[in-house]
Amino acid sequence: MDLNSVFTKSAKGVMELSSRANRLPRDLMKVLKLVDGKSTVRQLAEASGVSPVSLLLTMQKLEKDGYIKEFTPAGADRPANVKVSAASAPVGEAGDESLDFTIIMNPAPPAPESGGSRAEAVRRAREEVNQRAKAFAEARREADAMAQALASTQSRVDQAATALAKARLEADRHGKRLAECKAAAEAQGAKSRARLEALAGALAAAEAKAGTLAIAVEQACAQAQALAEACRYAELRTAALARALAAAEDGQKPELAQANSASEEQLRDLREARETADQLVQVLAKAREEALAESKALADAKNRIEAGAAARAEQVAAAVARAEREASALAAARRSVERAASEAAEAWNQAQAASQALAPLAARAQAEGLEADARALAATAAAAGARTWAGALADARPKQEAVIAALGEAVVHAKARAAALAEAVNAAEEDDQVEALKRTLHRAQAEIAALDEALSAAAGRLAELGQAHAQAEEQAGRFAEAARHARAEAERLRLESERRPREEEKQARQEQRFKTQAEAGRPSEEAETRNCPVPSPEKEEPRSPPAKVAPAAAPSWWHRRKAALGKWLGLSASLIVVGGVGLLHGVAWDFIVPAAQSIVSARLGEPVSVRTAYGAIFPTPQLRLEGVKVGRDGALTADVITVPGLAGLLGRSDEVTAISVENIVVSAAGLRRLAAWNTPARGSAVASLEKVSLRNVRLALEAVDVPPFDAELKLASDGTLQHISVKTVDGSVTGEIIPSEEGVRIQAHAHVWKMPFGAPLAFKSLEVKAAAAPGRLEVEQFDGLLYEGRVVGEGTLRWNGVWVMQGSAELTSVDVSALISAYLGNSPVSGSLKSKVRLLLQGNSLRSLFDAPSASGDFVVEKGRLTSVDLAKALRSASAEPWRGQTSFRELSGSMALSGNRYEFRNLKLTAGILNAAGVLEVAPDRSLSGRIRVEIRSEANPLQGLLAVSGTATQPLVRP
After folding, report:
1. Which of 50, 297, 317, 826 is deepest in the core (most CB within 10 A)?
2. Which three-class secondary structure state does DSSP give residue 25?
3. 70, 2, 65: which is closest to 28 by C-alpha?
4. What range does the domain containing 652 cover?
5. Mean pLDDT, residues 412-430
6. One GO CC term of this entry (predicted)?
7. 621 and 709 share a domain?
8. Minimal CA–CA distance to 154: which of 266, 243, 239, 50?
9. Which phi and psi (to 5°) does residue 153 adopt?
10. Of 182-186, 768-772, 800-804, 929-933, where does mean pLDDT reach its minimum?
11. pLDDT average, residue stretch 699-727
């Protein structure tokens, strides 16, 4: 097929032209009409003005589809000088299936002159045929390339034309939509203005009607008074006529009877007139009351609208001002707490400075040999420091209490403000300011939670300060007592040191006198006797010789020296003992490490290593084991194990009743071996242990981040656990664990707690009751406050090879916006959620348990709002563009199914006054939305219904017609 080909219509092409269906496109139909069975492709292109290549491609398509067929093969031109008769020509060279009658019509060629010339002619003809075939092939390749280029260009042109047409259509739709929106806005504005004008006109008409009715009522009252006067006058006249009738009854009976009849008829007319006047007065009074009531109602409605707007504005302004005041009060309270803590720290620094200032005096006194004075000075310094610290704590405590009171008052005010804002939100549910009020309410609730947390922290700090104050007072008392004893001892030693030289001097003088007398001898005594007067025998007492006095006095002196020497020896022994004990304080006791390792290893049934041990005397005797590791793999490590009392120092492990362990790290392997460690004590070495205190325990788990906690363990006489009390270091979670025959019973309470794994839910409070056994944890009940609502449920967790969790929960009055925001960061819906959910989780490990959750349940959201979608505007829109906005609703209900991180919402029903909607929705794992919603507006004036398509994301949904 080339540009010289001739085509003719096939039977299918003829039928297509004669048929009215016209299945072919317009351009192909136009080419089909051009085919006449005589003209070549080039001639048809020249006649129609179409590109030859494009026309050739079109005819190829028509030939392929069977609408035309080739009448003369391409390149069938006959050579000018070579003519073969029809009889001698081969059958295959006669042409194709179409009969070519041109061969018959041509004249017969002349007879060849010779065989050589005929062979030469045949050769030339073949060469010419080959050249034409090559030229035809080259032309065909060029035509194919050109056809492909033209087809590509035509495709791009068609696409551009389609895009242009679509853009024009979208522009037209957009313009139409803008015009409709503008018209709707103008109509709505006109309707609002007409409504306001009608309300003002009705109010003016009612006021005018009330004034007219007031005038009519006044006139009617005047007429009624006139009728009443006429009635009274008629009654007086009737009475006079009656008297006249009685006076002239005898002579004028007929006239009197006639007059009586006339007066009675007149009286009856007057009575009827009076009754009519009374009825008219009542009707007018009632009409006046109704008019006044209507006028008052209209005025009240107007005032109520204005007052409502002003009140809501005042409420918002007051709420903002109150929030600012409470924030200022909270900041002031925090500054007060920090200032009190700074003052306490400064007081403690002053006490330490005073103690350091007195330390040189004590050292100098000790260097001078006055140990008692040194102890007194040290005790005085310690007592002064303790009293200063206690005084600082006592001064800080009222400030802390005042701060806590201020925080409590702030919490009360914040809760009252939140309640007022909630009432304002309920009152202004249909107002445009409800969103601002709700945001203010959420901020107030967040401030309440922060204030509660600050109050709890301040209460904890106050309790710590109280304990520190009590400890400081106790320590100050001990130091004061020690100082008093030290001062008394120093005073006693001072007096004794002052008395001892006097006694020694007196004793020396006495010894010197005795020695002098012994050297003088007897002659002096006789001379003294002669010089003295001779007493009478009756009065003279026998005089003992001096030589016998010294031996009598000498034993008394030696006894006193022995007593003094005994006191000095006792004091020296006491100092030696105290010094020896003091040398033991803070010295490494590595000799006790093997015994301690064997005792703990025998208790746990695991190899135990201890890095070092220390003994301490002050302030209380205790033994410290540092660098403890349980198990060869370090399943449990602890920085310090403290054994209080003298029993640990003396190696009497059977008398140890309590120990304290600090900075513990337990691995996953250690957790699995806890049950094996809880066995009866092996031997009697630790049978007396009753209490174990654990501080700062950390669980080294990969799947979940457990916060550090403290624990108190109570042991039975055989060494098994009786009770465990647990409390996190930050105080947010407390719990009790009680061993039972099947396993353990668990009770836990959490305050302002966020789940460390799985769903990122933040509970205001949570109560849990559970039972654990090997490979199983059964939560019998959990009850918590979640996002201003309540959640109650139960569940079971099993981990026998495969981790499986299943359970159910019931949510009541939960803020659905906060719940969805915990997952997505932003919620497309708000309101109060009520739901029942069934949950099933499976995984090969605890970490993978939440990878593909499954859940199902029903839900109802009341008094809420779609924050990103305006269903009414989307339904009224004639454009395919997505619509954004808000849709308030009274109730949104449906069922939810979660499988493999894909959410399916079925049987969705939304009611919002005259607007109702129903549909289905799916949320893909990448949070993309798909679904459809049927919306209906039941309005008598302009009812509408239609189907909307949902797209976008979970945080930014889109709807379009």
Report:
1. 50
2. coil
3. 65
4. 587-735
5. 57
6. plasma membrane
7. yes
8. 50
9. -65, -45
10. 182-186
11. 84
Residue 677 in tokens:
């460690």
**pLDDT reported for residue 521:** 53
Q: Which of 690, 711, 735 is a domain's end point?
A: 735
Q: Count other Cβ atoms within 10 Å, centred on residue 815.
A: 20
Q: Is residue 645 part of a domain?
A: yes
C-alpha 869/C-alpha 888 separation (Å) is 10
Beta carbons within 8 Å of 10's beta carbon, 6+ residues apart:
66, 67, 68, 69
Residue bearing the bigger pLDDT, 609 or 466: 609
Give whole-number Cα distances, 102 to 107, 465, 683, in Å: 10, 125, 128
Cα(first)–Cα(last) distance of the chain, in Å?
A: 51
Assign 429 to helix, strand or coil: coil
Contact 732, 753 (CB under 8 A): yes
Alpha-carbon distance of 374 to 327, in angstroms, equals 54
Helix (H) / strand (E) element for 648: namely: helix 646-649
Final residue belonging to a domain, choices 694, 715, 735: 735
DSSP string, 1-14: --TT-EEEE-HHHH
DSSP 3-state of 181: helix
The average pLDDT across 186-190 equals: 68
Residue 780 has what pLDDT? 92
Mean pLDDT score, 138-150? 71
Tokens of 69: 């067929």
Alpha helices in 585-726 (DSSP H): 593-604, 646-649, 668-672, 674-677
In-domain check, residue 159: no
Q: Mean pLDDT across the stretch 79-95?
A: 38
pLDDT in tens, 653-662: 666 778 889 9
Distances in Å between the Cα of 222 and the Cα atoms of 213, 215, 278, 282 are 14, 11, 12, 13
Q: Out of 71-85, 246-260, 713-727, pick the least confident.
A: 71-85
Q: Report the domain count for the chain.
A: 5
Return the DSSP state at 538: T
pLDDT, mean of residues 176-190 = 67
pTM over 0.85: no
Find the DSSP H helices in 786-862: 816-824
Predicted confidence band of residue 572 (pLDDT cuts 50, 70, 90)? very low
Q: Is pLDDT at 297 greater than 80 in this prediction? A: no
- 592 and 731, same structural domain? yes
Considering the domain boundaries, does residue 321 fall inside one?
no
Report the pLDDT value the prediction gives residue 785, as an integer from 0 to 100: 93
What is the sign of the dihedral through the CA atoms of 189, 193, 199 and 205? negative
Buried b / exposed e along 25-57 (16+ C-beta atoms within 10 A): eeebeebbebbeeeebbebbbeeeebebbbbbb
With vertex at residue 575, the alpha carbon angle to CA 571 and CA 578, rounded to the nearest 5 degrees, is 135
**685 contacts: CB under 8 Å, gap ≥ 6:** 599, 602, 603, 653, 654
Residues 404 and 288 both lie in one domain: no
**Both tokens assigned to 370:** 């006055």
**What is the torsional sign of CA 44, 48, 53, 54?**
negative
Amino acid at 781: Q
Assigned domain for 820 exists: no
